[in-house]
Design goal:
By secondary structure, the protein is mostly beta strands. It folds into two domains: about 150 residues, Immunoglobulin-like; about 100 residues, Immunoglobulin-like. It is about 5% helix and about 40% strand. It contains one helix and 19 strands. Strands 2, 4, 5, 6, 8, 9 and 10 form a seven-stranded mixed beta sheet that branches. Strands 12, 14, 15, 16, 18 and 19 form a six-stranded mixed beta sheet that branches. A hairpin with a 5-residue loop joins β15 and β16. The longest helix has 7 residues. The N and C termini lie far apart (about 45 Å).
Length: about 260
């Protein structure tokens, strides 16, 4: 699915400088949402680290910070939005005013996807995420490069079998004891994420509900396609429920909710 080779361009100094800039406080809907410790914007891998050795097919998952949201290219929208691109053995472009090409080294996720199944052949690769707008013009929102090694490509594994439609909280486990502030990362598999205002068919936006043990539920919607938040609720026991709200019909959800009990200390 994804090829391997190609020359390398140097990372543009302007891109590095812009990536380190401070961003405005991300979209907040409730006082229990906290300001992130680092007010920077970044696309990142949520299940792969530098130096990893993997077998393919491998389901690779994406995250996005700084209040940025996912927006499919079908219906352009302004603001802090874009779609992911996976760069394979490529550095960041020298010119951020040029559209990204379409080939096996620049993989586009223009429907609002949060994952991809790698089918790379055995070998070493450099991977990087880069966010771009509906015209495929890059934003200064990208990941650090990861060097990985594919040790084996399994012919007995169907790549489609690795994708099961649903949502989950990536970094919050059941009955976890957590100190505030803490980050909550959302993930959607087999379904796309988009701005509510796009009303894109078969896409949704996240909603997180915190229910205190002895209190009323607090709903936090993320209509701009955001895929994470930081929280600082009062100490106590909570149930965290994640929903994916149908952008075409906000009264419905696209998949079953995902719920975990936690304790904030």
């Amino acid at each position: 699915m994804i090829g391997s080779a190609g020359g390398h361009a140097q990372t543009p100094p302007a891109a590095i400088a812009s990536a380190a800039r401070l961003d405005p406080v991300p979209f907040q809907t409730h006082p229990w949402q906290a300001v992130p410790p680092r007010l920077t914007s970044e696309a990142y891998f949520t299940n792969l680290e530098d130096g990893a050795k993997i077998e393919t097919p491998f389901r690779l998952t994406f995250g996005l910070s700084g209040g940025w949201g996912l927006a499919p290219i079908a219906k352009p929208i302004s603001g802090k939005s874009g779609h992911h691109h996976l760069l394979v053995n490529r550095e960041l472009p020298l010119d951020f005013k040029q559209a990204l090409p379409f080939n096996e080294q620049y993989i586009h996720f223009g429907k609002g996807q949060m994952e991809s199944v790698l089918t790379l052949a055995p070998g070493t690769y450099k991977l990087r995420l880069l966010l771009a707008d509906e015209k495929h013009l890059p934003h200064f929102v990208f990941s650090k490069p990861l060097s990985i090694t594919v040790t084996n490509k399994r012919a007995d594994v169907d790549p489609k079998s690795l994708v099961q439609k649903g949502i989950r909280l990536l970094n919050v486990s059941s009955d976890a004891r957590i100190k505030a502030p803490f980050r909550v990362q959302f993930h959607a598999s087999g379904v796309n994420v988009a701005h509510l205002s796009q009303k894109e068919k078969d896409s949704g936006h996240f909603r997180l509900t915190l229910t205190p043990q002895n209190g009323r539920p607090v709903e936090m919607p993320f209509p701009n396609g955001q895929t994470e938040t930081w929280l600082a609720p009062p100490p106590g026991a909570y149930a965290l429920k994640l929903d994916l709200i149908d952008n075409g019909n906000p009264g419905k959800t696209l998949v079953d909710p995902y719920t975990v009990p936690i304790r904030v200390e």
